[in-house]
Each structure stands twice: as structure tokens, then as C-alpha cells.
Amino acid sequence: MRLGRSLIDNPVFNNQDGRTLGKVADLYLDKDLAYVAAIYLGSEGLVKRTPVFIRSRDVELFGVDAVLAKSSAIVYRGDEIPTAGRWVRLRDIQGRDVDTPGGTKIGRIRDVVLDAEARVTGFSLSQIAVEGPIADSKAIASAAVVDTGQADGAMTVDLATAERELLKVDPGSLSFRLPVDEVSPVGEGA
Question: Exposed site from 4, 19, 35, 53, fewest CB < 10 Å?
């Protein structure tokens, strides 16, 4: 597992000839925040800015130091992919409040936690306002999410599920550019 922002600034190479296609500027997540839908490479144009991206299904490997794309023919611009308008940028969910259905504030989203296939397994938290297992792990598993917060701007989680389905984060196994103490294991040997 790794934090989503560990991919930011990594170069993207064409796996066929090794040519550089750009750098990861951000991640696009699907509307349900379940997986990385595409890698955002930036925007082109002076007047009308057009996003440039590579869909995740066109990526061979989300490596620790680089991303390998299947070819250079898979770089898309603007609205070439009809579903792209429903994607959510990682930077747009960072800082989003996380609360319970009753309105108890849990914290804020710091980042997404990804598996090797770029699926979102959970969310790392900051400004944690509760004590207990969630505060200890500084993360919640995706299974606890009731509402992603697309409509009201606040992610809602089921507290009982969040405490039961703790995201077991081992800081030694994550690739990220933060001090190790920002993500801690759930328990000894976790």
C-alpha cells in the first residue's frame, strides 16, 4: 500500500520505447473514490486550458519511482473520454471533512491509500477529532464510507465499521514523502 501523493511528480514513461510522456501532476479518482481512474499530467493551452491524462487501464505499472504506460498513443486531451467529466481530482478531496451520519467530526482527508493496482483501500486522515482506534491508525478503510461527500463536501463514515475495519497501515510498506510518524501502524506487528 502507498499514499496517492507518493505518485505525484513521478515521471511517466512509454513502456515500448522508454520515452518520457510527462510527470504525474495529480490523480483522477472515479466518482465513487474507489480507484485511480487516470493520471493527470497537467494542462495545455494558453486561453482554454485542456487537461492531459492517461487512463489507469493504460498503465502497465504504478512503480515506486516511475509510472510505465503501455504506449505513447494513450495520452488523452480534454473530453476525448466521455466519462472523464465525472472523475474527481485528488487535490479536490484533500482537506475534505470526514464525519459520522450524526455529524460528529472525525477529521479531514489527507490522502488516499492505494494498493498495487491503484485501487483506493482507504483514506489517511489529518486533524483527527476523535480518540481511539481511528486516531491511533490515522486512517479509515474504504469499507466504512457511507457517502463520499460529492454533494455536500463532507465524507460520511460509519464509525462502528471504521473501528471494526481498521486500515492496517504499516509505515514501512508505504511509499510517501511525509515523516514516518504521520502514518502509524494499528498495533504492534500490524
Answer: 19
